[in-house]
C-alpha cells in the first residue's frame, strides 16, 4: 500500500524510516535477481494495475509475515516438506531460500508477461528434477499437481491474511478476486483444483487436514527458522518480530497441529501488536520498490495502489500464466 504524508511528519520519522530501509535492503538487496520490471512499456504482466494482487503484494509487512506463515504451514505436509529436506540447503541458507521465493513472487506479480512466463518455466524445470521418498517411504515429486496446490494455497492464504492484519481490511469479494487472480500462477506451474475463493480455500484446507502431521522433520525445520540469522543489526529481534507476526496469521487448526504453547501464543500476540504499530514506518521507508516500478512501466501513479480497483479481472485471468 502506497501512503502519502506531510513534510513535517516525514521529517519527524526520517531517522526511524532510514534504519528500517537499511534493514530491509540488507535482507533483500535490490538488483541481484536480474528481473526486468521497467520494460516493456504498457505491459501489464499476468495481473496488471486493475488487479487486487498488485495491491496485496505491494505491502512489505504483510508479505514477509504472510510468507513466514506459509512456511510454518508447509512444514505440516510430509511430502512437501520432504522436497525441502532432501533437495535444499535450508539449514545453511534459509535467508537465501526466502530471497529466491521473494524474487519469484515479485517477478510473477509485477514483471512483464514474457519475463513472468520465463520465471515460471524456470521453476517448472527445477521442480521436474526434484523427487524422492518421504521418511516413511512414500514417493514424492515436486511437480505433483497436488503438492503445487498445497504450496500455492498456503502462500496465498498467508499473503492475504498478512495484508488484512498489518495493512487494511479486505472485503470478501476482493479476497475472492485475489484468490481467483493468483490461481493462474499456480496453474501455470502445474497445480490442479486450485481453490479460487475464500470459501474454496477453507474447504481445501479442511479436505487435506487428515494428510497433515507435525513430526520430527517439522520440528527441525521450525527450529532452523527460529534460529535464522539475518544480516542486520539486532538480527534476533527482527527475526522474532516477523516470525511472531507470521505465526499470528495461522488458522486455529494449524496452531493446534503445530502444538504451539500458551507462552508461544502470548509472544505471537505481542509481535503482532508490534508489527501493527511499525507497519506504517515500513511503508514510509520503502516508497520506491518493485510495485511503483511496475506502475511507472504502465504509466500509472503508484498512489493508486492505495485504492481498491473498481474492477478485477481475476476470473478472466485464470490460466493466463501459461
Describe this structure in words.
The protein is built from 15 helices and two strands. The chain has 322 residues and is mainly alpha-helical. Helix 3 crosses helix 11 (235-247) and helix 11 packs across helix 13 (262-285). The longest helix is centred in the last third of the chain and has 24 residues, at 262-285. It starts with 6 loop residues before the first helix and ends in a 5-residue tail after the last helix. 42% of the residues are buried.
CA radius of gyration:
19 Å
Q: CA-to-CA gap between the ends?
A: 28 Å
* Helix count, DSSP H or I runs of 4 or more residues: 15
- The share of residues in extended strands comes to under 5%
Helix content: 55-70%
Q: Which class best fits the helix and strand makeup?
A: mainly alpha
The stretches of 5 or more residues where confidence is low (pLDDT under 50) are: 313-322
**Overall geometry:** globular
Quantity of strands, as a count = 2
Largest sheet: 2 strands, antiparallel
- Helix and strand pattern: HHHHHHEEHHHHHHHHH
Tally of domains: 1
Question: What number is the mean pLDDT?
Answer: 92
Query: How would you write the strand order of the largest sheet?
Result: 1-2
Amino acid at each position: 500500500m502506497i501512503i502519502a504524508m506531510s513534510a513535517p511528519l516525514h521529517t519527524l520519522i526520517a531517522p526511524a524510516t532510514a534504519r528500517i530501509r537499511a534493514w530491509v535492503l540488507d535482507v533483500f538487496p535490490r538488483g541481484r535477481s536480474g528481473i526486468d520490471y521497467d520494460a516493456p512499456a504498457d505491459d501489464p504482466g499476468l495481473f496488471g494495475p486493475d488487479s487486487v494482487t498488485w495491491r496485496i503484494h505491494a505491502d512489505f509487512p504483510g508479505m514477509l509475515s504472510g510468507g513466514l506463515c506459509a512456511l510454518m504451514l508447509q512444514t505440516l505436509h510430509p511430502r512437501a516438506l520432504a522436497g525441502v529436506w532432501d533437495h535444499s540447503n535450508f539449514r545453511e541458507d534459509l535467508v537465501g531460500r526466502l530471497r529466491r521465493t521473494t524474487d519469484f513472487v515479485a517477478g510473477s506479480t509485477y514483471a512483464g508477461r514474457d519475463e513472468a512466463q520465463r520465471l515460471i518455466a524456470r521453476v517448472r524445470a527445477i521442480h521436474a528434477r526434484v523427487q524422492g521418498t518421504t521418511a516413511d517411504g512414500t514417493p514424492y515429486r515436486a511437480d505433483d499437481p497436488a503438492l503445487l496446490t498445497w504450496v500455492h494455497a498456503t502462500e496465498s492464504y498467508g499473503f492475504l491474511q498478512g495484508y488484512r492484519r498489518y495493512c487494511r481490511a479486505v472485503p470478501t469479494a476482493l479476497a475472492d478476486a485475489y484468490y481467483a487472480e493468483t490461481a493462474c500462477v499456480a496453474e501455470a506451474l502445474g497445480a490442479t483444483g486450485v481453490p479460487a475463493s475464500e470459501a474454496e480455500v477453507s474447504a481445501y484446507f479442511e479436505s487435506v487436514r487428515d494428510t497433515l502431521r507435525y513430526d520430527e522433520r517439522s520440528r527441525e525445520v521450525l527450529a532452523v527458522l527460529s534460529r535464522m540469522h539475518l544480516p542486520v543489526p539486532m538480527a534476533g529481534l527482527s527475526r522474532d518480530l516477523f516470525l511472531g507476526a507470521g505465526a499470528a496469521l495461522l488458522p486455529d487448526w494449524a496452531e493446534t497441529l503445530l502444538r504451539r504453547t500458551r507462552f508461544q501464543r502470548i509472544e505471537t500476540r505481542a509481535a503482532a501488536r508490534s508489527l501493527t504499530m511499525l507497519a506504517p514506518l515500513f511503508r514510509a521507508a520503502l516508497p520506491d520498490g518493485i510495485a511503483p516500478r511496475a506502475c511507472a512501466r504502465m504509466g500509472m501513479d503508484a498512489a493508486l495502489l492505495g485504492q481498491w480497483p473498481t474492477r478485477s479481472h481475476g476470473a478472466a485471468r485464470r490460466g493466463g500464466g501459461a
